[in-house]
Each structure stands twice: as C-alpha cells, then as structure tokens.
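Posting this for the archive.
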Amino acid sequence: MSSLFDCRDEAQLLAGMRQARQAIGRGELVVLPTDTVYGIAADAFSSRAVQGLLEAKGRGRQSPPPVLVAGVATLRALVAEVPEAVERLVEAFWPGGLTIVLPSQPSLSWDLGDTHGTVAVRMPANNLALELLEETGPLAVSSANLTGKPAAIMATDAKDMLGDSVAVYLDGGPSATGIASTIIDATSLVTGVAPLVRVLREGAIDRAALREVIGDLLEPDPVREGDPAAPPAAVESAPEPAEDAAAESPPPVRDGA
C-alpha cells in the first residue's frame, strides 16, 4: 500500500522524506515534485528498480529514464566528458529545466535501458527534490504518468495513474509551470563527429535561450510550415526534428521530468 505525504506540512515532510529515502534504498519507487512536472524516481544504480520504473509507466527499455542529480560534481562523475559549451549551458540553466544527453562514464556499473552509451542528466530547481538527491545520490527519474497520458502536475494526478506501483508519493503542491524540461543531445561535442547540439524535445528552455549561450553550435531551427522566410520547396522537404535525428543515428526515446 503506497503512502502520500503533504510536504507543505512540516511533520508530514519529515516523515515523507524518511520513508522516501528508505523506499529508494529498498529498490522501490517514489513520486516527487520537481520544478517542471512530477517525476517517478528509482535508484539509478539498481537495474531492478529502473526496470520497475519502466514497467510502472508501461514503457520498454528503448525509453531509458534521465538521471536527476544534486549538482555539477555528480554530472562530472556520470559522464565521460563535459565539453566547454555544456559548461556554459549548465551555468546558464542549472538548476532548471534543461536535460543534457552526453556519453556516459564507461566505468559505471548501471543499467538504465537501451541508452546507446549515453545518459541524460538534469539538476532540478526544487528544494525538496534536491534534498532527496543529496541523501540518495543520483535518481533515475521519468515524468510521473502512464505512457500516452499527460505528465502529472499534482501528486494526486500521479497517484491516480500509478497507484500502488509507487511506494511513496511526496506532495509539494501543484507544479510551478507544468512544462517538462527541454532535452538536448550534446554527445557529438564529445565524439567530435559533426559537433552540433540537437534538441530532442522542446520544453521549459526555448531554442532562442539556448542559442544565446552556445550560438551556432545549436542545430538550425526547424522550418515551420507557413514561415514567410522559407521558400515553398524548403517547407515541403524539411523533415521534422525527430525524423532528421533518426536518419543519422536514432537516439533513445527520453521522457524526463
């Protein structure tokens, strides 16, 4: 039987955080608030817990969850390299709504799914989430919803969808924005093959803000139908971003909070 704690109440906050830590330690799932939408969390280094997360959402291994961290030091420990352009993005947008995909540290022993040797990392701007991350270490976190359903913006929404598959629900009130994080793929900045940052999912951080920080390292903006600046041929032939990315090297499907 799962438990829900209203973390706006001090007594419930203390009890909820204690039970959440214990649940993560047992390989169970926890729903927690973030600065974007509610997330469903598991110990990132427990393959059983991560598999439980995917099953709770109705997803397969082709959709590995991103990892939430408490700070930049943890990012450095999880990835093979942090390029200078990513350093600038982290300085500008962390903690906040930007998830960054990079090659993972090859020495790490974990199984997040079919990651193709990468990991998606974010530092949330939510004190409750950061406090839990400080105590548990990195957590695999996906948006708290069933596949195909809207991401939960309240703990009760998540509980209605996920039920007893989650051990502990931490209720921090309604999500501030309800807009999921932007996910970018910066792996080519490390591999050196056509270095370019690709937007895998548009969300809390828009392309204009990203371009202000990294300039032409960001992929060209997609041509939208009806754009008066685009010739008709370009509108007809321009692929959607996901299709263009898939044509080169299909990235894992990410679904982060």
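Confidence is low (pLDDT under 50) at residues 231-250. The longest strand covers residues 98-103.
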